[in-house]
Amino acid sequence: MVEDARKLANGRDRIDFSAEPARYRHWKLAIDGEIATLLMDVDENGGLFEGYQLKLNSYDLGVDIELADALLRLRFEHPSVKVLVLRSAKNRVFCAGANIRMLAGSSHAHKVNFCKFTNETRNAFEDASEFSGLRTICVINGTAAGGGYELALAADHIILVDDGSASVALPEVPLLAVLPGTGGLTRLTDKRKVRRDRADVFCTTEEGVKGKRAVEWRLVDEVAPSTRLETVIAERAREFAEKSPRLAGDGIVLEPLRRQRTPDAIEYAFVSVALDTKDRLASITLRSADSLPPATVEEMVAFGASFWPLQLARELDDAILDIRNNEFEIAAILFKSSGTSETVLAYDAFLEEHREHWLAREIRLLWKRVLKRLDMTSRTIVALVEPGSCFAGTLAEIVFAADRSYMFDGERDGDNRAPAKIALAKCNFGLYPMSNGLTRLQSRFLADQGDLERAREKLGESIDAEEAQELGLVTFSLDDIDWDDELRVFLEERRSFSPDSLTGLEANLRFGGPETMESKIFARLSAWQNWIFQRPNAVGEEGALRRYGSGQKPVFDPRRV
Amino acid sequence: MVEDARKLANGRDRIDFSAEPARYRHWKLAIDGEIATLLMDVDENGGLFEGYQLKLNSYDLGVDIELADALLRLRFEHPSVKVLVLRSAKNRVFCAGANIRMLAGSSHAHKVNFCKFTNETRNAFEDASEFSGLRTICVINGTAAGGGYELALAADHIILVDDGSASVALPEVPLLAVLPGTGGLTRLTDKRKVRRDRADVFCTTEEGVKGKRAVEWRLVDEVAPSTRLETVIAERAREFAEKSPRLAGDGIVLEPLRRQRTPDAIEYAFVSVALDTKDRLASITLRSADSLPPATVEEMVAFGASFWPLQLARELDDAILDIRNNEFEIAAILFKSSGTSETVLAYDAFLEEHREHWLAREIRLLWKRVLKRLDMTSRTIVALVEPGSCFAGTLAEIVFAADRSYMFDGERDGDNRAPAKIALAKCNFGLYPMSNGLTRLQSRFLADQGDLERAREKLGESIDAEEAQELGLVTFSLDDIDWDDELRVFLEERRSFSPDSLTGLEANLRFGGPETMESKIFARLSAWQNWIFQRPNAVGEEGALRRYGSGQKPVFDPRRV
């Protein structure tokens, strides 16, 4: 396997997840009242890494970072938009999928994390539709292959041009010996409910399916002749807009996050990241707001991107993505917090009171997605609940997202901050489901519904270490005598384990109970794809991914396992 | 990776899945009225392959083949047994899990198939409890580590000796850099509902958990001091027996299957397997009974193991296992049938009529498990519905289990057999759920419940090729002109694809819709374990699995993915 053979383009040394429309290289976002159009127009020479060209609207992580940004802006900056028309600016090509040369030359870790982020982006389209009423209509004007068709699958409605040539295809198996792993297989069976034997035929047919058969097989929702295409799009957009329940508003501006990076730290306004590369640890400290929430929603809107819960969510999201994609040797992320629980709870109460306001709703939906991103992060997650911390309400979710949590019992010698407390709010009981459809407390208390009820009885109260452990809200409560030693031993031990076995362990233990389409994408589909991404038949010297486009046929080991 | 470095012991050239109590090397089965005891007493020198010793009740596939056989015999030969006490004959050792030297020296394909079979066996314990009322009480008298504890997890009730030393442990992550992949992680969270952070602590604690903490953490159901152990076992066995709804009877003898093997064929009474190694195809032909079912259940019991549905199920199961574990280069299994649908339907009707009889129930439960085994077989499954075939009722399930099905439309030139028909019976609508909890027809018709109803309206009717295609029951209906060419092209194409990508494709498309604990074991858990079984941190020269017991520490690549 090529290990990080690729260099980032333009001399950069980190993948940066920030983007803004004025700097997009690959997309054009245009707003016209309730209808927005997002044109995919990938700049061949705008690859994130050196060494490949993004031909035929093929994409890499950089293209997807802009796509995720565009969707986020639609949610916050353009709340009156009810329908997004997603289409291509290229002639006779919608999107050729993930760039194959990029994949062939990427490290295993980059491939896995690239797929994870693109999966999260596609899930975000469905989240926007289900919870914000922002519907997506995808227009396929030519080839939609592999990841191109998988992108379309995230839409509410797919229109395929019926010109005898435009087609949808998932040619990964026949062409590349990998899977349509960006949700493709799962969305075929679970979202579009394509009959499984037809899905088998479709996924093994390199040239894909076009015209009426694509409708009959449920691969697209309708076909339209080229001459009527614009009329059909306009009609469909109007219909979807009429039925959308989206809460309108004027929008706010998502100002760029201010970050200061040094070799071993990233400083945001409310988030600090400390990187300890020697011990392979990252610490993320979240701070509560400097002041209590405003009295009115108008003031919240006036705060805009600097409104504390919104700014914190964006900063945290950026920090998680940065560690995930740039710091592969970090074994564990330690979450700490600093501030006052009362302030945190006051913001939760404010958002709860104004939950019908579009901005409050969007902020809470953003938190849901950021917390899911954390669940999906393949690093050991540890919460340290210490004196002076503020793990309350929304921030308490991080404690419940952790693989383990440690709570400091009592005061620290020489530290006059009040003993650590946890506080629960209404938002811990339904607002932030994980990808398996359960809240983190439900997932925690699968054995006994009574545990959940006992926790609910403490709503709003300050829960100290002893009680938190009794209630099962934290893993360990430790006093001053044991704290340092226990943590040191745990973290030393953790980083001595195989990173792969921890990835597998955590991916299983975090998601007890039911599965949903979303969790199946990250479990059944991604785990199989990751397996295939290790197999010589795909990534070996003679494998299909490496030989694609070389003129040489791949050579396969014929043994099934 | 070592590729099939192991030789089978005793000069054998195939893994044989047949077993019988008189020949067991590793287990002792004793029956005492309603209570049976199965003693694990692994013969160190009885390994399936050369090159390792099965110390401390560690196991390999050979040990598990006998275990699966013992359970099958309890179901058919001892239907009056209501409780199975599963325990060890060794002093202070229950079971040390899968033998590590065996794993370290096995090919990837053997490891994967070993885990698959052991998973199926553990599922069979739970199936016996849920559907036959045969409860299992597991007694842990010492070390129950890794696969040893995973075996215990399949039981209804776990008793741990409280002697200050006996413990349960899942030390795979700290010791071997792999997962507790034989259902362990999934049963912890989904069956025993162990809190996820406790599960994290447990799975990273090499020495495991003992005594009261094991109960408090839900890892076992009770502890008993050594002095009271036998009393507690007897009490528990009596209690479970009293509550068991098992239908009693006298039992039948499962005579050994008669098989004739030649290099390219296996002949059973009602099943023929033809192996075409050049084209990497296996054909399995199922034949209907020679005569109609008897008039009474007494006659069914008198037929015993030669009663057609039972014999066919056992032969088919053996054939699937043989191909899975001995013929790794076979890309596709073609299922054919020969005989009369009326006879097949008559047996289905007989079993339906006598569904409350213990033997009829056990036969149908066996079919359910054999069909699940087929769903879990990582080869392309193709059903060929041809003139003279009898894909009706239970046998029609094989058409619905297939990745694709081809039905011959009309008569074959020069062949006077009647055109192909399919027939549905009541058993196609609920009796044989897949591991995801849906029937194969429900899985097929996820999109529209109406399709299922349209199929149900044809219950008992002969459905010809045209109608079968209209109803969506087969993938393609082809006439004499196209049949040979279409099949030839399809099979050539299929075997040109990467076997790994087909494994992943089929594992995703076969299981649309919901997941259950059982399907999560085969999807989320197994797919991650298979990934880890490819990672150098586990299986490389310096990996933990290879270095275990060598005195050398493993060396890990620290990067998370």
Largest β sheet strand count, sense and barrel closure of chain A: 8 strands, mixed
- Named at the architecture level, the CATH assignment of the largest domain in chain A is Alpha-Beta Complex
CATH homologous superfamily of the largest domain in chain A - what is it? 2-enoyl-CoA Hydratase, Chain A, domain 1
- What is the CATH T-level topology of the largest domain in chain A? 2-enoyl-CoA Hydratase, Chain A, domain 1
Uncertain residue ranges of chain A: none
Shape of chain A: globular
Oligomer: homodimer
Number of strands of chain A: 20
The CATH class label of the largest domain in chain A is: Alpha Beta
What structural class results from the helix and strand content of chain A? alpha/beta
Tally of alpha and pi helices of chain A: 22
Determine the strand fraction of chain A and express it as a percent band: 15-25%
Biggest interchain interface, per-side counts: A-B, 93 and 93 residues
Q: Averaged pLDDT of chain A, please?
A: 96
Question: What is the domain tally of chain A?
Answer: 2
Spatial strand order of the main sheet of chain A: 13-14-15-16-17-18-19-20
Radius of gyration of chain A: 24 Å
Percent range of helical residues of chain A: 40-55%
End-to-end Cα distance of chain A: 21 Å
